[in-house]
Every structure is written in structure tokens, then in C-alpha cells.
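Re: the pair you flagged

First of the two:
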Amino acid sequence: MRLFAAVATELSYTAAAETLGITRQTVAQRIAALESELGVRLVQRTPRGTRLTEVGKSYASRCAEIVRMADEANQSIAETGGPVRGALRITADPLFGEAFLADLVHDYQREYPAVDVELLLTERKVDLIEEGFDLAFRVGAMSDSALVATQLGPASMSYCASPSYLEARGRPRHPNDLAKHDCIALLPVQSASRWLFVVDGHPRWLAIHSRLRVNHLPTARRLAVADSGIVNLPTFAAKPLVEAGLLEVVLPEFQAPFGDVRLVYLGRALLAPRIKSFIDMSVERFRRDSLLPPPED
């Protein structure tokens, strides 16, 4: 599997042989033996070079993950009691990353200078196995049973506006009051503008008056700061601006939960020290700074 993963990465028997420190003939013989054992063709040789079959591509991703797990298990044992080192690949939603991760990653690398960090902020849900990432911050329901999750806390939405907007237009006391306000909606153009509230202990979708609709949450947040109206933001995204006095929370007693914030990773029995140390620091930091309320028992 290690040999085939090298061939899949290099798409060259010669380059794979150099990487593994063996002869090209040995690579060719072992690939042929592997194909014979599996009863499928994994590699096709053409005048233009080496390429993987569709079956080969699927098998290569699994081989690469098994090799990675084996290497990390060996590294975990070797590093027991020693310095935390290696490369750590993390992904998160851009808004979440903006709110949390710059300071966290900075402090982590200051404490563990032998760890190199790659941070990918994307709205796309990254496949940790296929794309070789160690950790992902996820907000909302957990759907991938192949991943293990450390819960950081429940998530909720906050309804916010700039202090100057609220001074001019008044502060709503009930969700029904939003009909008299300008609201910044984040919905498809064809959809009705509705926000979720907790009213009398029950979640309810209520219509809002939206003179402005955008499909980008950071832009909606900036518009709210610029006095354009009331916006519905994840609480973690609103908190820094609320603390800075740029936004004010309204209708806090009607805030609705929308799942949990989790740090997810592959279900490995033995985590590499760099992964475990980052998880531990993340949990400690979120609790210490009260960025999220603690999980309910």
C-alpha cells in the first residue's frame, strides 16, 4: 500500500522508486503482484506516462490514508515524552476562522514552535480523509460518522444592529416589532425572509421586513455596523463587534440555537501529539474566553 501510494502521488515508477529507495523494477513487480492479488487493474501505462484507473484512484486515496495513519501512530510513539512537532492542517468556515482562529493559531505556534500549521478557511465542507486534513471546526449538526468530534459548545444566533441605528429607530422588544425595522436578510432572492426565534419556549419562524438581502455573511455584518439595519448573526461572529461597541444585541431572550460548534477529526485511537495538543488548547481557550457557553450536561 505504501508503494502504491507513492506511485499514485508521483505517477511515475521511476520517481516512486527514488522516493522509496528501491529499484524501478521492484516497483513494477510489486504493482503487478498487487493487481493480480486484487484482480483489478490499478495503473495504466501509456506513451504519455503513467495514470491511474478509476478503481486505482479510489484505492490510492485509501492507501494514502492508511499509510498516513501508520506513520502518525509510529510518530506518536516516538514522540511520547518528547517535543510536539510536525505539520498540522486545519480547516474552518471563513467567518468562524476570522472570529477565533488567528489568535489561537498564533498562541499555539508560540507554545509549540516545532509545529508547522496550514489553515484553510473555506465555506466548502472539506473531506478530511480525501484532502489530508487533521482537524476541522464545524458549526451545526454532525453528519459524518467517520469523524470523531469534540464539542466546544452550543451555537446560537444573535439579532444585532448598530447603536446609532437603534437610537434612531428604537429597540425592538418582541420579534413582531421587526416589521417596523429594516432587516438585512441572508436568503436566496426567491425565498421569503424569515428568521427563527424562540417564542414562549418554542421555536418559530417569523417573517421579517428585509429591504436589503445579501448572500455573504461578512458583508451583512459590515452593513449592520454601517447603520443599514438589524442583522441575524451567529453569536460567535457578533461577539467581537458587540464587545467593541460597534453592534448591540437586541431580543436576546428570543435567541434560537442552531446546533453545536465542534472540532472534528479522524477517528484514530492514538492521536498524534500535535493534534491532541491543539484540541486541548482549543477547548481551554474557548472555555476561558467564554466565546461559547459550556456544553449542557
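Second of the two:
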Amino acid sequence: MLSVNDLSIAYQANKVLNEFDLSLTTGDIFALTGDSGSGKSSALRFIAGLDEVQNGQVVLDGKQLSSNGVHNVAPELREIGMVFQDYALFPHMNVKKNIAFGIHHLSNSEQKVRVEELLLMIGLEGIEKKYPHQLSGGEQQRVALVRALAPSPKLLLLDEPFSSLDKNHQEQLVLQVRGILKKTNVTSILVTHDKHEATIFADKVGVIENKQLTIN
């Protein structure tokens, strides 16, 4: 499903990653860990196409997305969903409009059915008209997750989405999100600095040390 080959990332003279290789099959849940500044989030940005690739190749479902400094496919056309650390929900939109943001190509009735289906999946049915500020941190996180899942992406990238949550509820939510991803069979990559979180969330765990990726 995803193949990243010989990916090297540098910002001016600062080399962040060297010869990063990763291969995932459909439904794999992978966690990427490492110290702060090790290049975890940079790897996600390059896979998503938000930054240009200096060296290496990114292939998703047989389609070459990027290769050696060239974006063959624009970020918005890559069929990749993203969930950020701050969730990035639109504060002026209610839950329904947030989730439906990436499925405007569907009819209004189809959007309504899809939103209701996703809210039922995460146990938050009936909150369509609420706004982000009216939700708890855990609820915002789950809404951000299903907003990313709404267009049925081939790959989901999660950048430290649990780090700001209450520790008492964090593990429960990590396991719940894992269950949702397994149910939907979406190939996923989680970036986290928390090794325990990585272990309970992912099928495979990779560690970046000294600009190199090692998969346990």
C-alpha cells in the first residue's frame, strides 16, 4: 500500500533524515517514535506532499506521489488524511460541517448519511450541531479523526494527536482510535514521542535515531 524508499530530508545544511525506508500493507498501523527534532513530523510532511522531497520516492497504492524533488501528485489529490496535534477543527463550523468539509462532492443527503455513520462509529451521535469549543478534548480528537476518514483516504497520518489529552483518559482513547482504524482497515502512521502509546496503538513501531529509521 505504501512504499517510501531512500528518503532523505535536509533543511539547508541540516540533514534530518538519511535513507529512510518504509513499507506498509493495507490496514497496517505503524508508529514512528524518536526524540524531539529527530525528523518524525518531517517524514509525515514529506509523505503528505506538504514539503518537497530532496531525495527518495513515495509510492501509494502503486501510484508514484513524489520522487527526487518532484511532486508527481499534489497534496490534495493524494488520498491521504491527516490528524494534527491541535486537531485543526474549524471553530466557525459545527461538527456536521467540519466532518463534511472533505466530501462536498457528495449530495447533501449523502453527506448527512456519511456524517451520521461516522458519529455513530465513534459514539458521538447527536452532536452534529455543536461547535468545537463545546466539545471536550477527547470529543474534538474523535471528530478530527472521522473528518479525516470521511473521504475514505488510502492512508491516514496522525501527528501527536493524543499528546494534549488528559492522561487519565489518554490510553482509553488511543485504544478506541486503534479499534476504529482496524474496523475501517485504513493504513495509518502515528507520530508520537510516547513509546507506551506507540506500543499499544501500532502493529509495528519504528524509531528514528541518528537520522536512521529502525523498525522493531
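The helical segments are 40-48, 95-100, 108-121, 137-149, 167-184, 195-201.

-B.
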